[in-house]
Amino acid sequence: MEEFWAFYVSQHSNPWTRRWHFIGTLSGLLCVLFAAVSGVWAFVVASPLLGYGLAWYSHFFVEGNVPATFGHPFWSLLCDFRMFGLMLTGNMDKEIKRLGKRPVLQEFHTEDNE
What we know:
The protein is an all-alpha fold. 69% of the residues lie in helices and 0% in strands. The protein is built from five helices and no strands. InterPro entries: Mpo1-like (IPR009305). This is Transmembrane protein. The chain crosses the membrane at residues 21-54. Keywords: Membrane, Transmembrane, Transmembrane helix.
């Protein structure tokens, strides 16, 4: 997880990419919460559309890269929630500094970690 996390953070170097992700994740979570409270389960369908839609927009039009979700959906989702939590608590900048400017593989391969 830690090696993929370093790769994930490198793919979110632009602060606006991280902000779009935060808005997408928050919107997705609010959709699920609203669905649970209201019983309007169509909002569950809206959740990934909003969450991924805003995140993918940020990769294609802000960061200029391909979303890591395409190659690693499970790890990307876990890392997105980790990034969301760090941003929510104000610790994402500290995490970026912790990771520093160490070289990160341009592409993360799961077979390298098996």
